[in-house]
From TrEMBL:
<protein>
    <recommendedName>
        <fullName>AAA+ ATPase domain-containing protein</fullName>
    </recommendedName>
</protein>
<dbReference type="InterPro" id="IPR003593">
    <property type="entry name" value="AAA+_ATPase"/>
</dbReference>
<dbReference type="Pfam" id="PF01695">
    <property type="entry name" value="IstB_IS21"/>
</dbReference>
<dbReference type="InterPro" id="IPR027417">
    <property type="entry name" value="P-loop_NTPase"/>
</dbReference>
<feature type="domain" description="AAA+ ATPase">
    <location>
        <begin position="103"/>
        <end position="238"/>
    </location>
</feature>
<dbReference type="InterPro" id="IPR002611">
    <property type="entry name" value="IstB_ATP-bd"/>
</dbReference>
Length: 245
């Protein structure tokens, strides 16, 4: 092992032993004992402490791992979405590794089934990443959201809701598609209201025509959406049934 590496692994072993012991003990002795135990089990202490080789991973590659396979290469080609991504990337506070994401407008991507709403929404997330925006984001369909937040033992639903509500960017897919109740209405209200008040960019997709937003989601949610979102209306056939050759 080269010298700096040996010193690093020794330092690491030292830190390990000093957190494990209660009585102050000579650290060198303990490290030697630990090495003895590892060697007795056929483990090379140097190999245990060695760092994995660093591989360069871009923010886009990391994001791709979280994007559902179907939308992993999605490109937002709608002009309004490109304009939105440019705006958000420009407005972000500058930082050492690219602009951050701050307050900004949200998008409501509406249209019938299969017109590419989810595709455009994930495309928008990817567009921000390719523009170098440092991004923490969450994505959830409303049906999954309600299932996730349903009260059950040993699960802190409130914390889950807060994570989504406070996420710097949220993709809320298929709003209005799940069965509603007073409980889902209240939950949607709390989520949207937090994002409305803090002006957090939110990508929302929905099958609902504008006129039905109020009756399905309730007036309080529809009113906030009207103010906080730019509308993107997608038209055309169901792309799932009319695939280009
Ligand atoms: N611009 C595009 N270029 C290539 N493929 C696309 C594009 N838009 C959508 N698709 C593909 O078309 C199919 C339907 O798209 P998507 O799932 O985004 O529709 P949707 O509007 O969200 O439908 P739903 O309302 O049922 O959720 C997917 O296979 C998607 O990958
Ligand atoms: Mg969809």
């Amino acid at each position: 092992m080269d010298k700096p590496r040996r010193r690093r692994s020794r330092l690491r072993r030292t830190a390990l032993t000093s957190t494990l012991t209660r009585e102050p003990q000579p650290v060198g002795l303990l490290a030697d004992r630990l090495n003895g135990i590892l060697a007795g089990r056929g483990i090379d202490p140097g190999a245990v402490a060695a760092e994995p080789p660093a591989e360069p991973v871009t923010a886009l590659e990391l994001a791709d791992a979280r994007i559902p396979a179907r939308y992993r290469r999605a490109l937002a080609d709608h002009p309004q979405i490109i304009t939105w991504a440019d705006h958000i990337a420009h407005a972000g506070r500058p930082g050492p590794s690219g602009p951050g994401i701050a307050e900004g407008p949200s998008l409501l991507i509406a249209g019938p089934t299969g017109t590419g709403k989810t595709h455009q929404a994930y495309g928008a997330v990817r567009a921000l990443l390719t523009r170098g925006v440092r991004l923490r984001w969450e994505a959830v369909t409303t049906a999954d959201l309600y299932a996730r937040l349903r009260p059950r033992a040993g699960h802190d639903a409130e914390r889950d809701l807060q994570t989504l509500a406070r996420s710097p960017l949220l993709l809320l897919d298929d709003l209005g598609a799940a069965k509603t109740s007073e409980w889902t209405e209240e939950l949607t209200y709390r989520l949207i209201n937090h994002r409305y008040e803090h002006m957090l960019p939110t990508l929302i997709t929905t099958n609902l025509p504008t006129a039905e937003l109020r009756t399905t989601l309730g007036d309080r949610v529809a009113s906030r959406l009207a103010e906080m979102t730019d509308r993107v209306i997608l038209k055309g056939p169901d792309r799932r049934r009319h695939r280009s050759p």
